[in-house]
Amino acid sequence: MAVRACGLIIYRRLQPAPSSKVTDSIEYLLLQTSYGTHHWTPPKGHVDPGEDDLQTAFRETQEEAGLQASQLSLIEGYKKELHYPVHGKPKTVVYWLAEMKDCNTEIKLSEEHQAFQWLKLEDACKFAEYEDMQAMLKEVHQFLCSRE
To answer: Where are the beta strands (DSSP E) in the chain?
Structure first.
């Protein structure tokens, strides 16, 4: 059976400069793992027994980034499943999209992560080494731009 994990793609909007587009002010939260290859990823984790996927995404976000569900706005209409092998076993990760209500809210990392960055799309794609993660970030950005 495939390993199942869930998480949130979290973004914040900074005050845009008068000359810039609104979408230029969007930054995405990525966390750097403190294990393995120290890859960068949105907060996510395995589904616990009796928990639904969205509960998992919010619990993992709280554990890994210190963000409460009340500090985030879930964005309707975006949900994405990624499928890839980990140690030879299939893994499914379901992501939702959430906006920070206050862009200055402090991030509090667990010991699972050693660093975090708020990154504009181009930099977020550089940090996210995996092609499917890069594609998803671009898709999210396109989704947000289409809602402006």
So the answer is: 3-13, 26-33, 40-41, 44-46, 72-86, 89-100, 113-119
Identify the CATH class of 3-146.
Answer: alpha beta
Question: Domain limits of the chain?
Answer: 3-146
- pLDDT, one tens digit per residue, over 24-69 is 789 999 999 998 889 999 999 999 999 999 999 999 999 999 999 9
Instruction: Find the angle CA(16)-CA(72)-CA(22) to the nearest 5 degrees.
Output: 15
Q: How many CB atoms lie within 10 A of CB 68?
A: 10
CB 31 within 8 A of CB 43: yes
CA dihedral sign of residues 68, 142, 27, 33? positive
